[in-house]
UniProtKB/TrEMBL annotation:
The protein's name: Copper transport protein
Family of this protein: Belongs to the copper transporter (Ctr) (TC 1.A.56) family. SLC31A subfamily.
Sections of the chain in a coiled coil: none
Record PANTHER family: HIGH-AFFINITY COPPER TRANSPORTER CTRA2, SOLUTE CARRIER FAMILY 31 COPPER TRANSPORTERS
InterPro entries: Cop_transporter
Pfam families according to UniProt: Ctr
GO CC terms: plasma membrane
Keyword Protein biosynthesis: no
Subcellular compartments: Membrane
Organism this protein belongs to: Pseudallescheria apiosperma (Scedosporium apiospermum)
Main location: membrane
């Protein structure tokens, strides 16, 4: 039984096979064929680029967290105007069925307080022209950088993979304390 593999047209013969194992090669293209390291120096430069790029990614996540906190602080510091005919916040608290009267004690001093649970319905902040376009732009940049880093890792090159991990480590070491723990 003679099997001629050229008649089957397998994907490995046409050069479009998907690598499923890590490999170590210095001539792995990054993002395009034009960016293919040709020497140990250009490979090292590509790895250094990936380290910096991953650190920048962590910096972008930290910058977004800092900006979100600033935007929230600015929103909480806004002064609100009482409109004629509308109940003020303190008047609404008096009639709120969820509010509970309690006694607060600190250092032997007791004070009567009214505790209100935070409403979970409608706690989205209002859309603001000064905040939301910048937030959306930051999200797009973060997603773009993340996808480019993902493509570098998906090249299955060990050097590229370790460079991205090293950059994430360096970035987290530098600015990780500013990012919320739920970010990846």
């Amino acid at each position: 039984m003679d099997m001629d593999h050229s008649s089957h047209g397998s994907s490995t013969e046409s050069g479009h096979s998907m690598m499923s194992i890590f490999f170590n090669s210095m001539d792995t293209p990054l993002y395009s064929n034009a960016w293919t390291p040709t020497s140990a120096g250009t490979y090292a430069g590509t790895c250094i680029f990936l380290i910096c790029f991953a650190a920048i990614f962590r910096g972008l996540l930290a910058a977004k967290a800092i900006m979100e906190q600033r935007w929230l602080d600015a929103e909480m510091a806004r002064r609100y105007i009482v409109v004629a005919g509308k109940q003020s916040f303190s008047e609404r608290l008096v009639h709120d069925p969820e509010a509970k009267d309690m006694v607060l004690s600190a250092n032997g001093v007791e004070e009567n307080v009214r505790v209100v649970a935070r409403s979970r319905v409608g706690n989205a902040r209002p859309w603001r022209f000064t905040v939301d376009p910048l937030r959306a732009l930051m999200d797009v940049v973060i997603a773009g950088v993340g996808y480019l880093l993902m493509l570098a890792v998906m090249s299955m090159n060990v050097g590229y993979f370790l460079s991205v991990l090293g950059g994430v480590f360096i970035g987290s070491l530098a600015v990780g304390r500013y990012t919320p723990s739920t970010e990846h």
